[in-house]
Amino acid sequence: MTATLLTGIGLLATQDDELGELADAALLIDGSTIGWLGPAGQAPAADRRVELAGRCVLPGFVDSHAHLVFAGDRAAEFTARMTGQPYTAGGIRSTVAATRAASDDQLRANLARLAAELRAGGVTTFECKSGYGLDVATEARSVRLAAEQTPEVTFLGAHVVPSEVDRTAYLESVCGPMLEACAPHCRWVDVFCEQGAFDEAESRAVLRAGVAAGLIPRVHANQLSAGAGVQLAVELDAASADHCTHLSPADIDALAGSATVATLLPLVEFSTRSPYPDARALLDAGATVALATDCNPGSGYSTSMPLAIALAVLQMRMTPAEAVRAATAGGARALRRDDIGRLAVGQRADLVVLDAPSYLHLAYRPGVPLIHQTWIAGQPA
Ligand code: NIG
Ligand code: FE
Questions:
Q1: Of all atoms in ligand 1, which is nearest to the CA of residue 156?
Q2: Which domain range does residue 205 map to?
Q3: CA 341 – CA 126 distance, rounded (Å)
Q4: Is the pLDDT of residue 117 over 90?
Q5: Which residues contact 126 (CB under 8 A, 6 or more apart)?
Q6: DSSP-derived secondary structure for 39-86
Q7: pLDDT (tens digit, 9 = 90+) per residue, 261-303?
Q8: Which numbered ligand comes closest to the C-alpha of 63?
Q9: How far does the centroid of ligand 2 lie from the alpha carbon of residue 139, in Å?
Q10: What's the average model confidence in pLDDT over 110-129?
Q11: Who contacts 237 (Cβ-Cβ below 8 Å, separation ≥6)?
């Protein structure tokens, strides 16, 4: 096993409550985990050294919400939106048609391309949802292909009811044969709880069926309108309520008093010209907040966690420290992972080296490619 010492770290922002931020630091990668970290002057011997010349090191970003198994794009829908059309859930169905028509290799290639984009943006762990198949065969294919790329696979058969299918029959399938075909490849079950998608009772039934099949719930909640999604997520002890764009004071209290993470997806509000969620109210109430990309061909086709962080700071009034915390430790909480999202001895060596002296620059220099290096499980990515 080779030990690599990263030294000359200008700022090591560990996201660990005890370790905090260290200036002039070093970090030892021992195989796939972190063997040591501390002041550069006290660093142990290593097989090789990498001099970082004052750069900032962070835990790798954890993207806890992405839809990456699909074919085609929705550039025409985007153009219409830029000239005044609102975003609606219905656009999902056009991606479903393209996805069903694609071969495994086409879907695999598109997924690999997007995964490479995520890594280039400093993402070291990502979640990936189904939801553009919406029949048993294509949903099963979607989760199988996603599982080739990540252990964090989510069954989202309840994305919308597909065209020309009876609603009751579709829900029976999602809670029955479709779930049965998908669950072996998944860790999570999700539902789009929204007008034009699934109502509260339908969403509860889908999530309960998923739990009975051994999956952990997460919810697309309160994205396009106020609704029951957040309360349902808390009721079912979901790992995460995602979007949280339209929250009542009771929703904020419920999240703050629960283990359910509020996952905010500002690239969607940016891409749909929608109002941003009230991150300040969530943070000030004590809720755990995560940031994720929600990369998908409809509501936001970006894989950039650095841009999500910049938007969280510039548009949602999170501090740079809060935004970085949400994109690392927050994402890890949203995926209920203890081995990632913070830097400490024994943690997985998932790191981002910024071409900047501080993480402040992620917001200060929006849109600039600041990822110098990414390490995943101790290997350069
Ligand atoms: O998270 N809200 C539901 N699903 C995606 C959008 C899917 C699409 O438009 O294709 C989202 O925004
Ligand atoms: Fe989503």
A1: 4
A2: 61-334
A3: 12
A4: yes
A5: 62, 63, 64, 66, 68, 115, 118, 149, 150, 152
A6: EGGGPPP-SEEEE-TT-EEEEPEEE--B-----S--HHHHHHHHTTPP
A7: 999 999 999 999 999 999 999 999 999 999 999 999 999 999 9
A8: 2
A9: 16
A10: 98
A11: 217, 258, 259, 260
User: Which of 92, 206, 222, 240 best tests ligand 1's pocket when mutated (most atoms within 8 Å of CB)?
Assistant: 92
98 and 222 fall within a common domain: yes
Tell me: do 32 and 65 sit in the same domain.
no
Residue 287's φ and ψ, nearest 5 degrees, are: -75, 150
Q: Which residues on neighbouring strands pair with residue 300, listed in sequence order?
A: 296
Quick one: 192 and 315 in the same domain? yes
How many angstroms does the Cα of residue 267 sit away from the middle of ligand 1?
Answer: 12
Angle at 331 between CA 327 and CA 337, to 5 degrees: 140
- Check whether residue 141 and residue 48 sit in a common domain: no
225 token code pair: 């309108």
- pTM summary value: 0.98
In this prediction, residue 1 carries a pLDDT of 80
Question: What is the per-residue DSSP string for 159-201?
Answer: S-PPTTS-HHHHHHHHHTHHHHHHGGG-SEEEEEESTTSB-HH
Q: Which of 85, 296, 301 for mutating ligand 1's site (highest number of atoms within 8 Å of CB)?
A: 296
Question: How far is the C-alpha of 55 from the C-alpha of 127, rounded, in Å?
Answer: 28
Please state the domain count of the chain: 2
Kindly report, residue by residue over 315-333, the tens digit of the pLDDT. 999 999 999 999 999 999 9
- What's the length of the chain? 381
- Do 106 and 192 share a domain, yes or no? yes
Q: What is the CA radius of gyration of the chain?
A: 20
For residue 316, the tally of other CB atoms under 10 A from its CB is 21
Does residue 254 contact residue 232 with C-beta atoms inside 8 Å? Answer: no
Ligand at minimal distance from the CA of 299 is 1
Nearest to 317 by CA among 278, 274, 290: 278
Q: How far is CA 262 from CA 113, 173, 240, 255, 287, in A?
A: 28, 29, 6, 7, 7
**pLDDT tens digit string along 3-31?**
999 999 999 999 999 999 999 999 999 99
**Which residue has the least CA distance to atom 3 on ligand 1?**
192
Q: Which of 127-131, 162-166, 176-180, 307-311 has the lowest mean pLDDT?
A: 162-166
Residue position matching structure tokens 């396009």 = 224
